[in-house]
Design goal:
Layout (H helix, E strand, L loop, with lengths): L9 E8 L2 E8 L6 E6 L4 E8 L4 E8 L3 E7 L7 E2 L16 E7 L8 E6 L2 E5 L7 E2 L1 H4 L15 E7 L7 E6 L2 E5 L7 E2 L21 E6 L7 E5 L2 E5 L7 E2 L8 E7 L5 E6 L14 E4 L7 E3 L17 E3 L7 E4 L5 E4 L7 E2 L7 E8 L1
Antiparallel strand pairs: 1-2, 1-28, 2-3, 4-5, 5-6, 6-7, 8-9, 9-10, 10-11, 12-13, 13-14, 14-15, 16-17, 17-18, 18-19, 20-21, 21-22, 22-23, 24-25, 25-26, 26-27
């Protein structure tokens, strides 16, 4: 998708936290920001998605008492409605739906199609614009299913990608399981984990799964090219996920969670010290950008805190907008939100301190 010209478009930065959602409103210049919220106060909000077709926002919410639900608003959070027939496993499945980790629209040619990735790991689809949802059980009942095990954050399906050139081709990623691809609209799935190292789950290393993918994105210009932040590596596939190669050279560590890509193809990540020390290396908050598909990386920190800043960034707490130059946004585990309106060259902190930030999405209305 090409960048969107800076015209009269309005941008809403959707921020989900463990205690509700907050929205920043601005225009395409991204200079003046207005904050609203908390919305859905007290609820865990692990996923948010703005629908530019009808002005709706969809949220994946969770509470200890009421479980996981989908909620929608058509007035920018003033009022919310719960989806009565949202994603739900049957009692016979033996699975429990703990959280909704990702909400993604279907292909542009399928305006009524939506996907939801959940924990325990599974994928649901709506064909009627989110009113009712059905499990894509070709994935849940994949032959490798008895070998699926959770990571530290649970057994969550956190990434859903739709091939912009082929509505029947989908990729999903789940922790600590790996990457799957469907070429028939989600009816059947194949593992796509070749060359990815296994993680200790109690299974033999030669299994098809036990690969802990943290986040995955599609190259906007080259069909079938994907990138992922792994639990111990950063990888690229140039064959639609059939195989993976490391692109971690030049990074201060090979561990991290978030990854995003702009409409121009700039790739952004936030390395962390290690699995055991989940904060930025040496307490120096830096974002790393590649403009050559992972061959080289550049550290970007102009405007970020110079004092020791031992924070992390969660897997879905980083996003890019489609404007030109691109805006890039991330939220920390300490509840801070930073943004760049020039593809990472200069960074600014938005006013406010929030609960632990779980997700950020940039929605152009």
């Amino acid at each position: 998708m090409p960048p969107v010209p800076n015209d009269a478009s309005k941008l809403v930065l959707l921020i989900g936290t463990v205690k509700g959602a907050f929205f920043y409103h601005t225009d395409a210049d991204r200079q003046q920001w207005k904050l609203t919220g908390p919305h859905l106060a007290g609820w865990e909000v692990y996923s948010l998605c703005g629908d530019s077709r009808n002005g709706r926002i969809i949220a994946g919410t969770c509470s200890y008492t009421y479980g996981a639900t989908l909620r929608t608003t058509r007035d920018l959070g003033a009022t919310w409605e719960e989806v009565d027939r949202g994603p739900a496993y049957t009692a016979e499945s033996g699975f429990k739906l703990n959280r909704i980790w990702q909400i993604s629209p279907g292909h542009a040619s399928q305006p009524g199609t939506w996907y939801a990735g959940v924990e325990e790991a599974g994928l649901f689809v709506s064909r009627d614009d989110g009113r009712t949802w059905a499990e894509l059980d070709g994935l849940t009942r994949h032959p490798t299913r008895p070998q699926w095990f959770p990571g530290n954050g649970g057994m969550c399906l956190h990434t859903i990608l739709v091939d912009p050139g082929n509505p029947q081709r989908l990729w999903v990623a789940a922790s600590a399981i790996g990457v799957f691809r469907s070429d028939d609209g989600g009816l059947s799935w194949k593992t796509c984990n070749r060359n990815l190292p296994s993680v200790p789950t109690g299974l033999p290393a030669e299994t098809e799964v036990s690969r802990c993918v943290h986040k995955m994105v599609l190259d906007p210009h080259r069909p079938g090219v994907l990138y992922q932040q792994f639990h111990g590596g950063v990888f690229k596939s140039e064959d639609a996920g059939e195989s993976w190669q490391s692109i971690a050279d030049g990074l201060p560590s090979n561990f991290g969670f978030p990854m995003t890509v702009t409409a121009n193809g700039d790739l952004f990540i936030v390395p962390l010290q290690s699995d055991e020390q989940r904060f930025v290396p040496d307490g120096a908050l830096k974002i790393y950008r590649s403009r050559d598909r992972g061959r080289t990386w550049r550290a970007l920190a102009k405007g970020l805190p110079r004092q020791p800043h031992f924070v992390g960034v969660l897997r879905d707490a980083m996003a890019a907008d489609p404007l030109d130059p691109a805006g890039v946004y991330f939220g920390t585990t300490m509840g801070e939100v930073y943004y760049s309106a020039d593809a990472g060259e200069n960074w600014h902190r938005l006013p406010g301190q929030f609960p632990r930030i779980t997700t950020i999405k940039a929605w152009l209305t």
